[in-house]
């Protein structure tokens, strides 16, 4: 954790007090117009719940989620990386800089109370995998992780099958991750997850 931001301090000083923070993962490819608009809808719905929207801070899905939150009067946070030469998107209320990709990923995961993954590439896959692994290994406390849309829909099945293979100890994959076809359903799953965790704690 050396060199990482003070996550507790950030949560205390940034955004509405006591609000949930939801990280939205997804592609940075500007050509992915449909995914960007989907993320915009998602960001709006998250903001309407009073939740802070957190992204990697750049283009496409990230920009869409931040824009949707802004348009709904919500609060948006971006986590940037100084290795990138491109500029963060213009819909951020707060920008947190990190020195490399691993620090950026750690920051996103520790800031989020829950996660939604939209369509993306290897970066998004890494975010899903590390979030899932951290929760399964109890590096992070239980948090809802929702895969939105068709693109990632078979991922839980593939990994659950692997967990059930001979000689492999079953993890908590089925309890950690969920899939949603729509933004509305993704937000419902997050809300259900937050309520369940509050009851269990």
Topology, please?
Layout: H1 7-13, E1 21-25, H2 33-48, E2 52-55, H3 61-71, E3 76-81, E4 94-98, H4 101-111, E5 114-117, H5 122-136, E6 145-148, H6 155-163, H7 173-176, E7 177-180, H8 183-200
Parallel strand pairs: 1-2, 1-5, 2-3, 3-4, 5-6, 6-7
Describe this protein's structure.
- There is one protein chain.
- By secondary structure, the protein is α/β, with parallel strands linked by helices.
- Helix 5 links the parallel strand 5 and strand 6.
- Helix 2 runs parallel beside helix 3.
Number of helices: 8
Task: Write the CATH fold name.
Answer: Rossmann fold
Q: Please outline the major beta sheet.
A: 7 strands, parallel
Radius of gyration: 16 Å
Integer tally of domains: 1
Structural class: alpha/beta
Strand order of the largest sheet: 4-3-2-1-5-6-7
Query: What's the shape?
Result: globular
Order of helices and strands: HEHEHEEHEHEHHEH
Q: How is this structure best summarized?
A:
With 201 residues, the protein is of the alpha/beta class. It is built from eight helices and seven strands, in the order αβαβαββαβαβααβα.
Notable traits:
alpha/beta; about 200 residues
